[in-house]
């Protein structure tokens, strides 16, 4: 509101806080000294926490006196949220802005405290008020219970009221939602001020504001109640530690809220999912597909090659049109195509021509690779794009590569032998391989801890593995030796994956960050920081411009490779995320977690569009079929489930209102989308892969319980 803004600016000027005045002016797009004629941009709506309720007093002066008295006004809105709190002003009058607060500073915010004996009364008073409010508001306001409970408990512990803290915890911890059980277990172990110093989880809870999304009506109701009751303790926590994302419109129902909450820091702010994302695919390079070399295959059935020719051309022509949602072709530098890559692309097109069209009427066959007697403990699996090799990472720190075609794995000959070869001969690539080394299995030694992630390069020349030892290793599949050890993570690395174009790869680990690397650089090119707990899985978008990361903080983030920014935050899972899969057209993302749910996201709109319930244990593997008609999920419950992806994504409600408020309407019953459930005898499914012809390969280690 314009008057308030002018009053605040005048107050800042009188107090000689020039810097703050400038910042506020830039945020509100008021330039120069033109305070009189200035008009606030329409985005800054809603005035939070002005001490006298809403800004209704007339004249800047009356307002100014109110502002001076409080010196703490928050102008919350969709464009910019600026908190000018009394605590933010240092003694000298300069504003202290700290990005990474140090522990003591963070915890000292718990100093201003009320009477410890009244905490239970405050909390139960609010609880009573919320439980007696109208149904439409109750669901929204119930979101306050958990963050207030945690902050009030921590405040009691920090100020050394240990017995009050204990009784507060015991009285109210049973009321919290079931999906916060793990966090409450950590919380219950913090009973002394000293415990809080080293505890990362609690530090995160303190530093990142817990985000609640509440309709304006529910918020006004809450504010009125707290001000009438003069319940300053709770109001202070709301102001200090919570970020209330207010939207205009109908309050959300319990189901809508339940679908979205559950992460460590509440929901994502709506602004977090507003940035533009180029989710389209890059244009395929054009080259001629030689049609002659398959005539010999089709000789026995004369019509065969003829039928294929038009199909081939359509494959070529289909990719000529630029996708309007695709990033510019040169947005990030991608490696040049080598001749061998072009050959592989041709092979891929030929295979695609014979691909089976899947659908509810035509489900894929599933071929299961069971690792028997895997006493070394199978911890990771990957399969090459052409399905010719399979790799296992093991807890005994070995990486084992198998050939799953009759063609054995061979190493290149020694340098002395290579010098004898005639470089001009046609079969030079055959001649450089050493027949004596041919075998079905190669074991790669080098890591000094369990191997948690493996990934083949698209050209099948390299293999990545990441381990508990903190390194990512690049292995050559020509010599079966280690080429590079990338050291950047100081803690276990949980996952790694090559870009679909090769050259780049991503890794994520216990240090809560994901790193983007290029094979020829020792140092990471980008560090993606923002998760509040381990990064448990990583995935490249099909256009290689974005990376999705899943974390133990129960959120999924989408990062822009170009500038390292986080462009999407998806909340809704109730446990650590363990699997991610992009749809082949790049528009959707499927995520699986320890809660056994598979959630579907629309990347462009930044919305949850589906929830697939059926698994009873962690979902470790997700894969879309080659044309995106079917989503396969594999879980620790020893099943593979097939879901109808076409139906899941058709006629989505993504109107402007939904996008603006996040009112998602998930179909009640995901059973309509379940096409089939396939049990193994006793093998948890840890990897899934669709071959180029849409045969589904699954892998896991037999466990004899």
From TrEMBL:
| InterPro entries, per the entry | LisH, TFIID_NTD2, TFIID_NTD2_sf, WD40/YVTN_repeat-like_dom_sf, WD40_PAC1, WD40_repeat_CS, WD40_repeat_dom_sf, WD40_rpt
Compositional bias ranges of the Acidic residues kind: 289-300
Mostly located where? nucleus
Per UniProt, the keywords (alphabetical) are: Nucleus, Repeat, Transcription, Transcription regulation, WD repeat
Report the GO molecular function annotations. RNA polymerase II general transcription initiation factor activity
Compartments (UniProt record) = Nucleus
TFIID subunit TAF5 NTD2 domain spans which residues?
114-242
GO CC, one annotated term:
transcription factor TFIID complex
Outline the WD repeats, range by range. 371-412, 444-479, 486-517, 528-569, 570-603, 612-644
Q: Which GO terms describe its biological process?
A: transcription initiation at RNA polymerase II promoter
Where do Basic and acidic residues bias regions lie?
312-323
Q: Where is this region: Disordered?
A: 289-341
Q: Is the keyword Membrane in the record?
A: no
Top-level division of the source organism's lineage: Eukaryota
Instruction: Summarize the subunit comment.
Output: Homodimer. Component of the TFIID basal transcription factor complex, composed of TATA-box-binding protein TBP, and a number of TBP-associated factors (TAFs), including TAF1, TAF2, TAF3, TAF4, TAF5, TAF6, TAF7, TAF8, TAF9, TAF10, TAF11, TAF12 and TAF13. The TFIID complex structure can be divided into 3 modules TFIID-A, TFIID-B, and TFIID-C. TAF5 forms the TFIID-A module together with TAF3 and TBP, and in TFIID-B with TAF8. Component of the TFTC-HAT complex, at least composed of TAF5L, TAF6L, TADA3L, SUPT3H/SPT3, TAF2, TAF4, TAF5, GCN5L2/GCN5, TAF10 and TRRAP.
Instruction: Provide the function of this protein.
Output: The TFIID basal transcription factor complex plays a major role in the initiation of RNA polymerase II (Pol II)-dependent transcription. TFIID recognizes and binds promoters with or without a TATA box via its subunit TBP, a TATA-box-binding protein, and promotes assembly of the pre-initiation complex (PIC). The TFIID complex consists of TBP and TBP-associated factors (TAFs), including TAF1, TAF2, TAF3, TAF4, TAF5, TAF6, TAF7, TAF8, TAF9, TAF10, TAF11, TAF12 and TAF13. The TFIID complex structure can be divided into 3 modules TFIID-A, TFIID-B, and TFIID-C.
Q: Which family does it belong to?
A: Belongs to the WD repeat TAF5 family.
Would you tell me the protein name for this molecule?
Transcription initiation factor TFIID subunit 5
Q: Which gene encodes it?
A: Taf5
């Amino acid at each position: 509101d314009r008057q308030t803004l002018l009053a605040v600016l005048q107050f800042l000027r009188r107090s000689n806080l020039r810097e703050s005045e400038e910042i506020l002016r830039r945020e509100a797009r008021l330039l120069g000294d033109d305070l009189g004629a200035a008009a606030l941009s329409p985005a800054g709506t809603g005035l939070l926490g002005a001490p006298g309720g809403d800004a209704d007093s007339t004249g800047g002066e009356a307002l100014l006196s109110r502002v001076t008295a409080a010196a703490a006004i928050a102008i919350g809105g969709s464009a910019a949220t600026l908190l000018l709190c009394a605590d933010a002003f240092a003694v000298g009058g300069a504003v202290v802005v700290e990005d990474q607060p140090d522990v003591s500073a963070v915890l000292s915010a718990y100093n201003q405290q009320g009477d410890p004996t009244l905490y239970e009364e405050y909390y139960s008073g609010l609880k009573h008020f919320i439980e007696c409010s109208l149904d439409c508001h109750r669901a929204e306001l119930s979101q306050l219970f958990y963050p207030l409970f945690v902050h009030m408990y921590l405040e009691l512990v920090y100020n050394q009221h240990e017995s009050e803290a204990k009784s507060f915890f015991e009285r109210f911890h049973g009321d919290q939602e079931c999906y916060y059980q793990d966090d409450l277990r950590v919380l219950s172990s913090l009973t002394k001020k000293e415990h809080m110093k080293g505890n990362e989880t609690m530090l995160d809870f303190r530093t990142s504001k817990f985000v609640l999304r509440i309709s304006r009506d529910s918020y006004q109701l809450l504010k009125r109640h707290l001000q009438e009751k003069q319940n300053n303790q709770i109001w202070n926590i709301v102001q200090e530690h919570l970020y209330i994302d207010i939207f205009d419109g109908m309050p959300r129902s319990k189901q809508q809220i339940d679908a979205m909450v559950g992460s460590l820091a509440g929901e994502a702010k709506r602004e977090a999912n507003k940035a533009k994302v180029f989710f389209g695919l890059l244009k395929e390079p054009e080259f001629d597909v030689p049609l002659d070399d398959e005539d010999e295959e089709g000789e026995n059935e004369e019509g065969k090659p003829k039928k294929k020719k038009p199909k081939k051309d359509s494959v070529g022509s289909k990719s000529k049109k630029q996708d309007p949602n695709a990033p510019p072709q040169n947005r990030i530098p991608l490696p040049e195509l080598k001749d061998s890559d072009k050959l592989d692309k041709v092979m891929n097109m030929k295979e695609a021509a014979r691909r089976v069209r899947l659908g509810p009427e035509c489900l894929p066959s599933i071929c299961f690779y069971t690792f028997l007697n895997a006493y070394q403990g199978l911890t990771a699996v990957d399969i090459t794009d052409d399905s010719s090799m399979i790799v296992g990472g093991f807890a005994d720190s070995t990486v084992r590569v198998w050939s799953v075609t009759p063609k054995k794995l061979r190493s290149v000959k020694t340098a002395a032998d290579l010098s004898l070869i005639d470089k001009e001969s046609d079969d030079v690539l055959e001649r450089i391989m050493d027949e004596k080394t041919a075998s079905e299995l190669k074991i790669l030694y080098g890591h000094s801890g369990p191997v948690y992630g493996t990934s083949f390069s698209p050209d099948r020349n390299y293999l990545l593995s990441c381990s508990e030892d903190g390194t990512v290793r690049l292995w050559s599949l020509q010599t079966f030796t280690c080429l590079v050890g990338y050291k950047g993570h100081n803690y276990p690395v949980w996952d790694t994956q090559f870009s679909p174009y090769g050259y780049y790869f991503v890794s994520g680990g216990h240090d809560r960050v994901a790193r983007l690397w290029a094979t020829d650089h020792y140092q990471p090119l980008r560090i993606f920081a923002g998760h509040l707990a381990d990064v448990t899985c990583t995935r490249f978008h099909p256009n290689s411009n974005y990376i999705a990361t899943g974390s133990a903080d129960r959120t999924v983030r989408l990062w822009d490779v170009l500038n390292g920014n986080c462009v999407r935050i998806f909340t809704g899972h109730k446990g650590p995320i363990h699997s991610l899969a992009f749809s082949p057209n790049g528009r959707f993302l499927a995520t699986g977690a320890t809660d056994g749910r598979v959630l579907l996201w629309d990347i462009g709109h930044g919305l949850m569009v589906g929830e697939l319930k059926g698994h009873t244990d962690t979902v470790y593997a997700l894969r879309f079929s080659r044309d995106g008609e079917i989503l396969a999920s594999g879980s620790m419950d020893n099943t593979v489930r097939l879901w109808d992806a076409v139906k899941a994504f058709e006629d989505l409600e993504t109107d402007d209102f939904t996008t603006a408020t996040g009112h998602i309407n998930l179909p009640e019953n995901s059973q309509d989308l379940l096409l089939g459930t396939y049990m193994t005898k006793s093998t948890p499914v840890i990897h899934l892969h669709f071959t180029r012809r849409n045969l589904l390969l699954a892998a896991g280690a037999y466990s004899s319980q």
